[in-house]
Design brief:
InterPro entries: CheY-like_superfamily, LytR-like, LytTR_DNA-bd_dom, Sig_transdc_resp-reg_receiver. The chain is α/β, with parallel strands linked by helices. It is about 35% helix and about 30% strand.
Length: about 250
C-alpha cells in the first residue's frame, strides 16, 4: 500500500511512545509521526494545530481519562486507534468510531492491520469525495458561467457567479463581496447562499464564511485557523474544513 499516513501518538509514558514509534517504523513505514502528546494541554494543542490521518490514543493520561479530554474535540477528520492496558474500556472506545482497540503490549501484526484498515477507509473516502467534485465540475462546465439574482434595499442585482469572491454571514444577513464592485448585503442566511451557489469552487469554510477558491491567496499555517483572500481580507476557517479545502484546491 503506497498511501502515506500522518499520525499523532498520545501516551503519558515516553517509553510507550518510543516503543510505538519503533513498531511503526518497522511494520508500518507508510506512517509518519508528526506529533506526540502526554497530557490534556498537549493533546488539545496538537488537535488544534495539526491535521493527522490517524491518532493513537492511550486511555489513561496520568489522573485524566482520555474520553473526558476528547469529549468536545472535533475528531471527524482523522481516524482513532485506542491503545491501552485496560481492556474494560474497549466497548466505550468504539463509540468514538475507533478503527481498532489494541492492548498493551502492542502486537505488531494487529498494529499493522489497524494501519492498513485506516488507509483503506481513507482511500475510499477520498475517492468518493474526488468523484463528487469531478461530477460537479462537469456539470458546471456544461452550464457555462452562471448568473444569479440577489435583492437588497436598492433592488434586484444580476450577478455573475464568477464575480463573487466570498460571503460573510452575520445572523440572518449576509455580505456578498464582489470583484471590482460594491458589496451587497442581503437578508438571507449563509445556508441560502450556499445552496444558491452550488458550484465546486464555492466552499463553506466556517459557519460564517463561504468562499470562492479562485480568490484564495494564502492558507495560513501559523495556527491553521485562517486564510487570506486576494483582496487581503482575513477569514476564519474551521478545523474540520481545512482538509476539504486543500483537496478542492
Amino acid at each position: 500500500m503506497n498511501m502515506k499516513l500522518k499520525c499523532i501518538i498520545i501516551d503519558d509514558e515516553k517509553m510507550a511512545r518510543n516503543s510505538l514509534k519503533v513498531l511503526l517504523s518497522a511494520y508500518c513505514p507508510m506512517v509518519e509521526v508528526i506529533g506526540e502528546g502526554e497530557d490534556e494541554a498537549s493533546v488539545k494543542k496538537l488537535f488544534k494545530e495539526l491535521t493527522p490521518d490517524i491518532v493513537f490514543l492511550d486511555i489513561q493520561l496520568g489522573n485524566n481519562n482520555i474520553f473526558t479530554i476528547i469529549e468536545d474535540a472535533d475528531y471527524s477528520n482523522f481516524k482513532i486507534v485506542f491503545i491501552s492496558a485496560h481492556e474494560e474500556y474497549a466497548l466505550k472506545g468504539y463509540k468514538y468510531n475507533a478503527i481498532d482497540y489494541l492492548l498493551k503490549p502492542v502486537d505488531p501484526i494487529k498494529l499493522k492491520e489497524a494501519v492498513e484498515k485506516t488507509a483503506q477507509i481513507l482511500e475510499k473516502e477520498r475517492a468518493s469525495q474526488n468523484e463528487i467534485i469531478e461530477n460537479l465540475q462537469k456539470i458546471y462546465a456544461q452550464n457555462g458561467p452562471a448568473q444569479i439574482i440577489l435583492s437588497d434595499s436598492r433592488g434586484s442585482h444580476v450577478i455573475k457567479v464568477d464575480d463573487i469572491m466570498y460571503c460573510i454571514a452575520e445572523r440572518n444577513y449576509t455580505s456578498i463581496i464582489l470583484r471590482d464592485q460594491p458589496q451587497i448585503v442581503v437578508s438571507k442566511n449563509l445556508k441560502f447562499l450556499e445552496e444558491k451557489l452550488s458550484h465546486p469552487h464555492f466552499i463553506r469554510i466556517h459557519k460564517s464564511n463561504l468562499i470562492n477558491i479562485h480568490y484564495l491567496k494564502l492558507l495560513c499555517n501559523d495556527d491553521g485557523g485562517h486564510i487570506i483572500m486576494s483582496d487581503g481580507k482575513t477569514l476564519s476557517i474551521s478545523r474540520d474544513k481545512k482538509r476539504m479545502l486543500l483537496n478542492s484546491i
